[in-house]
Amino acid sequence: MKQAKKPKKHKLSQIGKVSANARTTDTHVAASELLIPPRKVAKLLPASKKHYQTVLMGRRSIQDIMDKKERRLFVVVGPCSIHDPKAAWEYANRLKRVAALVKPTIQVVMRVYFEKPRTTTGWKGLINDPRMDDSFRIEEGILTARRLLLKFNELGLPCATEALDPVIPQYIADLISWSAIGARTTESQTHRELASGLSMPVGLKNATDGGTQIAINGIQSARSSHHFLGLSPDGRSAVIRTTGNPYAHIVLRGGAKPNFDPESIRACEEALAKANLPVNIVVDCSHGNSNKDYRLQPVAFESALSQVEAGNRSIVGMMLESHLNEGNQPIPKDLKDLKYGVSVTDACINWDTTEGILLDAHKRLSKVFNR
Questions:
Q1: What percent of the chain has pLDDT over 90?
Q2: For residue 153, which of 35, 54, 205, 232 is within the disulfide window of CB 3.0 to 4.6 Å?
Q3: Alpha-carbon dihedral of residues 311, 317, 322, 326, nearest 10 degrees?
């Protein structure tokens, strides 16, 4: 009778030797650098009482519009992204002048976007790459962004931005009057939790396919309390506990087709009411609502404005992508070849068109709101 074979013993060399200096973490990390803490940035670039008066005025106006206490609209308008501080400052001064003229009917909020979500790759915005040369001097970008926000708020111009990286709000959120959660991140638990703790009204955009349910789910989540990991003002990991953001609302930005038309607005109103949410809608006139053609932004704005004129009370605001000059441009190898006042991300309408849209809207809304 044959004896049963003994199981083979595998030598270590057969399954792979483990060296003494083997690594199981950071195998794809080339380097890491400590970042200046948010508290230190606030000390280096402190906000004054005047800055905070602008911030709070902007927030309260938007909240009152959403609560139907103010018979006005708010319009978030400005470059798709900020890449040239000089051009941004010129734009802000022009916008401030028009904002004063339309104030009785429109609360103007300057679009000051420092971070750009990318579908694949591309320039990620002034905070991530302020020199636009792939050097990614993020600390420099944070300081530049905060300096600009201080200047705009000193001017008396409330600011809006997109909350993209969950760390960045610790550095600049005290200077922001309205924030957006983008279409690519509205479904993200991290961004819903972030929105629940932000101190300003937050608009959550519909999904890139145009569906609104993901945004509605996001609003419900953002209006709830959360516990999550975040960054303390001292730059340490911390457990953040939020109370929920009562001014989380939807932004319609189109998708497979535009959704600013009356039928889409009514469908959104019904969906919000069914979810027991305040029926507050912001119409983003760019992105899917302009079929990514900046020249069609006025069409979307006109439709939303006409609906307000006809008695619609759910549309509380609009968004426009606008710069000094129209269109957009690729980032050249030699930055000296950049065209002044032209977007390097999404194409924008020019200043003359922007001014005309705002002044015309004010004239028409004055008749509606004074009835």
A1: 89
A2: 54
A3: -30
Asked if residue 4 is part of any domain, the answer here is no
Task: Evaluate whether residue 183 is within a structural domain.
Answer: yes
Q: How confident is the model at residue 5 (pLDDT cuts 50, 70, 90)?
A: low
Q: Which helix (H) or strand (E) holds 54?
A: helix 49-66
Is the distance from CB of 123 to CB of 132 less than 8 angstroms?
yes
Q: pLDDT tens digits, residue range 116-160?
A: 876 666 899 999 999 999 999 999 999 999 999 999 999 999 999
CATH number of the domain to which 205 belongs = 3.20.20.70
Judge whether 359 and 98 are in contact, CB under 8 Å: yes
Sheet strands (E) in 52-101: 73-78
At 100, the amino acid letter reads A
* CA-derived radius of gyration, the chain: 24
For residues 180 and 115, the answer to whether their CB atoms sit within 8 Å is no
- What are 343's two structure tokens? 């977007």
If 0-12 CB within 10 Å is exposed, 13-18 middle and 19+ buried, where does residue 177 land?
Answer: buried
Q: Is residue 103 part of a domain?
A: yes
Residue 20 lies in a domain: no
Q: How far apart are CA 295 and CA 55, in angstroms?
A: 31
Structure tokens at 153: 């708020």
Q: Which two tokens stand for residue 100?
A: 């004063």
Q: What pTM was computed for the model? A: 0.93
> Coil, helix or strand for 59?
helix
Could you list the residue range(s) of the whole structural domain that residue 298 is in?
35-66+73-369
β-pairing, 73-78 vs 106-111, is parallel
Number of domains in the chain: 1
DSSP three-state, residue 159: strand
pLDDT of 118-129, one tens digit each? Answer: 666 689 999 999
pLDDT, residue 16, reads 59
The rounded distance, in Å, linking the Cα atoms of 296 and 307 is 17
